[in-house]
Amino acid sequence: MPTEAAELVFDEATKQYPGRPEPAVDRLSLTVAAGEICVLVGPSGGGKTTALKLVNRLIPLSSGDIRIDGTSIADHDVTELRRSIGYVIQQVGLFPHMTVEANIGTVPRLFGRPRTWIRRRSGELLELVGLDASYARRYPAQLSGGERQRVGLARALAANPPLMLMDEPFGAIDPIIRARLQDEFLRLQHELRKTVVFVTHDIDEAIKVGDRIAILREGGRLAQYDTPARILGQPTDEFVAEFVGADRALKALALRSLADLPLHDGAHDGLPRLPAGTTLRDALALLVAEGSDRVVVTDGDGGELGIATRDDLLA
Amino acid sequence: MTPLLGAGPVIPDFGSGSSCEQTNGWFCTDWLSAHWGDTLQPALVQHVELSLIAVAAGFAIAAVLAIAGFRWHLVDAPVGAVADFLYTIPSLALFQLLVPFTGLTETTVEIALVSYTLLVLYRNMVEGLRGVPDDVLESARGMGLTRLQTFVRVELPLAAPTVLAGLRIATVSTISIATVAAFVVPKGLGEPIFIALDQNLFKTEILAAGGLAVALALAADGLLVLAQRAITPWSRTPA
To answer: Are B144 and A83 in contact (CB < 8 Å)?
Structure first.
C-alpha cells in the first residue's frame, strides 16, 4: 500500500459563532508535520472538536486559513476535500443497512471503484484493523462497540487518505478495549504514517498517542503545542500544569520504558521480573507494590537483560 | 291460539336452494360452490383492485408530501394536520360528502380510501426519514456524500422499515374500509355483504364475503412482512 501523508497547517484559524461573546476557536496556528499524530486536547468548551471539523469544512471558518500540503481547504471542492480526508467519530456512524464491506467501500464507491476492487480492499483493511475476513458480510448491529470502531477506522482508511481526522474515536469504549485499540492504532500508524488530527478530552490518551499535543483552553485558544515529554516536563503556564495534572511527573514516566534505562548486573534472586517494553510508570507501580527497589528486565522470550534500579527509574 | 306463521321457525323465503339455504344455516357450502364463480370471486378481484389502487395512489401522494415535509419543516405541520383531519371523518360520512361532487363512481371510492391511507403513510415516512441517527448523517457528510447521495443511499433505506410498517397498517385498513365502498358502487366484497343484508341476513354470504376480506387483509399483510424482510435484511439481525 503506498504511503503518503500531508502537512496540515492551521493559520490563524478562527471560528466565531454569531451571537456568542467568545470565539469557539481563536486564531489557532499550528503545523502538523506529515506523518505525525497531533492530539487536540482540552476542557469542554476548548473548541477541539470545532477545530477538527474546520479541517473538512463540516464547520466553515470565520477567518484565517487551513492548508493541506500548501493548498487552502477553501480552494478544494467541498465533497472532494471530504473524500480525501479520513474521518472517524466517537459514535462511529456506520451505515446500519450496509454490510461491513459496503461500509468500508463507501468512499471508494464514490470514486467509482469497481466491486472487485472494493472486495479486495475491504479484505486488506479488515486484516489491518485486526478483524477476521468473515466480518465483511456482517451488519453493524452484529458487532461489539470495539469491533464497530475498528470498522469505522477501516472505512476511514479505505481510500488511503493522506490525512485522518479522528474525533474521540475511542471515547465510548470501555477502558480495557480502549487501551488495546490505542495500541493497535499506534502499531497501524507506525506502518501507515498518516497525518492524523486526534481529538480527546483524556490527557492520558493524548500522552499515549500523540507525537505532539495541542492543549486548547476555554475560548478556543492554544495554550501549548509541544511533544508529550515537554508538555509534562515544561508546562508553559498554570493552566497547562493544572490540566495535565499534579501527577504529571508520574505520567512522564509512562513515556519511557525499561529498555531506555541503564541496566546493571548482580544478584536477582526473588526480584520481580518485567519485559523491557514495560513503561517506567508500570514498573514503578510494581516496585511499590512488591516493596522492592530493583527489577529484573527480560527480553520477549523471558531471557534476562539485566537489572534496573528504582533510582535510575526516577532519575 | 293460531300461530300466524305456522309451527316452523320464522324464516323468509330463500328461494329454491338447498335446505341449508332455505333455513339460512350458518354456512352453506353448496351455496358457496354454486356462487363462487358468479359472486364471490369477481367481488374479491374488484376488492383487490380497489385496495391496490388506493394504497398505490396514497403511497405516491404521501411520498411526495413526506419528502417536502421532511425537507421543509414549515410544510410538515399543515400537511400533518390535513391528513389528521381526513382520518377522523367516518368513512360512510366521507363517501356521502363526496357523492355530490364525484357521483356514485369509483373515483368517489378511491378518493375516500386514499384519504385514509395518507395519515399513516405520511407520518411514518416523515418519522422514518427523521429517525436516521445523527452520527450516521455526520459520517455520511464527513465522508463527502452529497445531500442527494445521503438521501438516496442513507436516509431512504434507513426509513424503509418505518415506511413499510406504515404501509402494512394502511393496506390492512384500506382492505377493511373498502367493503364500505359498495355503498357507493356495486363493487368489492362489500357488495355481496350488502345484498345478503338486504336478503334478510343471508348468513353464508355475509360470512363468506367477510371472511374473504379478512383473509385478503391477512394475506396482504403477510406479503408485506416478507417484502420487509427481503428489503431490510439488516433490521432483523440479532446483535
So the answer is: yes
User: Which cell numbers in the block locate residue B110?
Assistant: 378511491
The CATH class, in words, for B36-231 is: mainly alpha
On whether the CB atoms of residues B65 and B86 are closer than 8 A, the answer is no
CA distances in angstroms from B112 to A110, B12, B47, B81, listed in the order given: 44, 36, 15, 17
**B41 interfaces chain A, CB cutoff of 8 Å:** no
Residues of B with Cβ-Cβ distance to A98 under 8 angstroms? 234
**Spatial CB neighbours of B40, under 8 Å, sequence gap ≥ 6:** B32, B192, B208, B209, B212
B147-158: per-residue pLDDT in tens? 999 999 999 999
Q: What is the pLDDT of residues A138-157, one digit of tens each?
A: 999 999 999 999 999 999 99
Give yes or no for a contact between B141 and A82, defined as CB atoms under 8 angstroms apart: yes
pTM summary value: 0.83
B148, B163, B234: best to mutate for the A interface, most A CBs within 10 A: B234
In this complex, is the C-beta atom of A83 within 8 Å of any C-beta atom belonging to chain B? yes
Closest approach of chain A CAs to the CA of B217, in angstroms? 29
**Contact between residue A119 and residue A104 where contact means Cβ atoms under 8 Å apart:** no
- Using the 8-state DSSP alphabet, how is residue A133 labeled? G
Distance from CA of A100 to the nearest CA of B (A): 11
Q: Give chain A's domains with CATH numbers.
A: 8-84+161-252 (3.40.50.300), 258-314 (3.10.580.10)
Does any CB of chain A come closer than 8 Å to the CB of residue B231? Answer: no
In chain B, domain spans: 36-231
Residues from chain B contacting residue A97 (CB–CB below 8 Å)? 154, 157-158, 160, 232, 234-235
* Share of residues in chain A with pLDDT > 90 (%): 67
Spatial contact of A271 and A299, defined as CB atoms under 8 Å apart: no
